[in-house]
Specification:
210 residues; seven-stranded mixed beta sheet; globular; disordered N terminus
Length: 210
């Protein structure tokens, strides 16, 4: 019974989570980010939420609310997501983001919106609280990047799939995710090399813009 109760708390369906709209879900994530000193975030498809421009975030949130939650509170949710980003500028915080090069190339919005997003990523790579790595297409992957995830202070892991959110707190599971993150981060490119990948993606995008 205790295990079932724990599982119930860990596994939360999006429709139940979004019953009052997605704003509450964003506020919950904001609380975890505010409480943590160290946040690790891997993404294989989307730009990390803390690094998204308002236009990119609107495209992402609008799709999820319409297709999964069936609730339309995009404006309120977007306001909370943008407010979440203030945590990036707080002293004592450390953020380590690792993304695949596919994140720079997949387009879920207009070319103009994507160009603005890539430009913001270039600027954020110089922020002292942020370490930003990109795994290039030609890197040999140490593990299959099945999905994105967050690790807060090596104490909890937040994972989302198409229909549910999962919060893992068992030490063995957190340790496993920490090892996976470390292996992915080890093949990432940082600093000037990461900015070169971003600049190349921006240049390629510009050639297809009218």
């Amino acid at each position: 019974m205790a295990s079932l109760h724990s599982l119930e708390g860990q596994y939360v369906e999006f429709r139940r989570l979004f019953r009052a709209g997605q704003r509450a879900a964003q506020e919950s994530i904001a609380e975890s980010e505010a409480a943590a000193t160290s946040t690790l975030n891997f993404e294989s498809v989307l730009v990390p939420g803390l690094l998204q421009t308002q236009e990119y975030a609107r495209a992402m949130l609008g799709e999820r609310l319409e297709d999964i939650a069936g609730v339309d509170d995009v404006d309120d949710t977007l306001a909370v997501r943008m407010q979440r980003q203030q945590v990036l500028y707080r002293r004592g915080k450390r953020f380590h983001f690792v993304v695949t090069e596919a994140v720079l190339r997949y387009r879920f919005s207009s070319r103009e919106v994507m160009a603005g997003q890539l430009d913001r990523l270039v600027a954020l790579t110089t922020l002292p609280t942020i370490r930003f790595g990109i795994i290039p297409f030609d890197a040999q992957l140490p593990v299959f990047p099945l999905h994105g995830f967050f690790i807060y202070d090596q104490q909890a892991v937040h994972v989302e799939n198409f229909t549910a959110a999962l919060r893992l707190t068992q030490p063995a599971e957190v340790e496993a995710y920490a090892k996976i993150f470390g292996r992915l981060a080890a093949v990432g490119q940082y600093g000037a090399e990461a900015r070169a990948l971003l600049t190349r993606a921006l240049a390629d995008l510009a050639t297809t813009m009218p």
